[in-house]
Design goal:
The protein is mostly helical. The protein is built from 2 helices and no strands. It has one domain.
């Protein structure tokens, strides 16, 4: 029974501390969220394009090597 009480008290303390910490958080405003979202979306497409080019170059290189050694 003491273990259950300790667990319940620990859980209650955890959630109370969590609420206290969430009040201290500095949340970004809408403009900051929109600008960082735009940066993330642009970065994802830029990396996708980069990796597509690298993949195509490596695929062509591996195909060239395989064709060279299979003739």
């Amino acid at each position: 029974m003491a273990d259950v009480k300790n667990w319940l008290q620990g859980t209650k303390d955890y959630f109370n501390d969590l609420k206290l910490e969430m009040r201290r958080v500095t949340w970004p405003n809408r403009k900051q969220v929109e600008s960082t979202t735009a940066v993330v979306i642009f970065s994802v497409f830029a990396f996708a394009g980069y990796f597509a080019v690298v993949d195509a170059v490596l695929a062509r290189g591996v195909k060239g090597v395989l064709d060279f050694f299979t003739k």
